Amino acid sequence: MAAAKNQAAFLIKAGTPLEVGDAPLPTAGPGELVVKNAAIAINPLDCHMQDVGVFVQQWPAVFGCDVAGKVYEAGPDVQDFKKGDRVIGHAINLVSGRPQDGAFSLYTVIPANKAAILPDAISFTDGVVVPFAIETAVCALSLKEPGVAMPGVSTPALGLPYPSLENPAPSLGKTLVIYGGSSSVGSMTTQLATAAGIHVISVAGAHNFEFSKQCGAAQVFDHKDPSLVEKIVEAVGKSGQAEFVGIFDAIATPETYTHDLAILAQLGGGHLACVHPPPSEVPANVKAGMIFAVNDIATPVWKDYVTPALQAGKIQCLPPPTIVGKGLEFIQECLKKSKAGVSATKLVVEL
Ligand SMILES: NC(=O)c1ccc[n+]([C@@H]2O[C@H](COP(=O)([O-])OP(=O)(O)OC[C@H]3O[C@@H](n4cnc5c(N)ncnc54)[C@H](OP(=O)(O)O)[C@@H]3O)[C@@H](O)[C@H]2O)c1
């Protein structure tokens, strides 16, 4: 059998197109897996990394967060995975800076505690939409104490329970508003929150109401509706739940912050968990924070939940992938499409 050869899509300099070239074949250290990627997915973060080199620690850079494929090598102490296992995983070049930890490669190193077996019935191109979004969702929902997202910005601490495999999950009597219910992060957070027994009211485009309900939202409102704030406040009031937790804002723009703060003002405050730095000034009854989606808080979910939940259909591989092409060369095209904006889909490249 021919020796395995690796290639990666390199960013040589911020603001330039990715260049595909030969890369060293990585090896698995303690607690690591090398995955032979069959599919990778694109996230908006990748566009920022390409444009301005944010989070890049080492040039040329190889980044990307989502992989699906087969285990090529398991680290010496890894018990839960073996060579040949079908897996999905969260690649963490974002924090490590090491090129071998970037998804945009034929072979990628991922931490074994950010991987899960992908059931045979689920294709790699479907499964690859899950990893980064699910870790982000856990960080949005389940941190108990505020940590540091970036200098001067703390993480949110909603302290909500992990998702359950019970169907349906017992109600917690809590309502959470998810702004951006059709986005990758918003839809996965809707799925996990619902699976934790939380009543979700979401905000999405009118054409994505059914999609957001498929993810578990009890009610969905149009982000273009001029009466959005009033409608959300009314829906929370009539939800029949004992507690309003707050808002997870998966869009986090000046416009969404205006709506968030108006909703929170009318509902007596609550959490405001954001995917970007929150508004600089918030009232005393609003606990605002920014998620940072690489966190060991997700380890129990990776270890005990992802595979059985995928198997049982408790996690659906949503939003569905749009497969842009086969080969590392298509990543650049995906980045261009991602910058143009997507709606209720995740851009995916097959390898
Ligand atoms: N801090 C972190 O750790 C972290 C982690 C992951 C992601 N992020 C950030 O989170 C954001 C979302 O990422 P993603 O991958 O989920 O994005 P995405 O799937 O590419 O987002 C596309 C979706 O955004 C929705 N949208 C756009 N404007 C909206 C608005 N005003 N109100 C409601 N929905 C709106 C669109 O909804 P319609 O088509 O229905 O209109 C569309 O479905 C990005 O900015 C990303 O950089 C941060």
From TrEMBL:
Domain Enoyl reductase (ER): 15-349
Keywords assigned: Oxidoreductase
Alphabetized SMART domains for the sequence: PKS_ER
SUPFAM superfamilies: GroES-like (SSF50129), NAD(P)-binding Rossmann-fold domains (SSF51735)
MF GO annotations: oxidoreductase activity, acting on NAD(P)H
Pfam families in the cross-refs: ADH_N, ADH_zinc_N
Quaternary structure (record): Monomer.
Stated family: Belongs to the zinc-containing alcohol dehydrogenase family.
The protein's name: GroES-like protein
Organism in which the protein naturally occurs: Melanomma pulvis-pyrius CBS 109.77
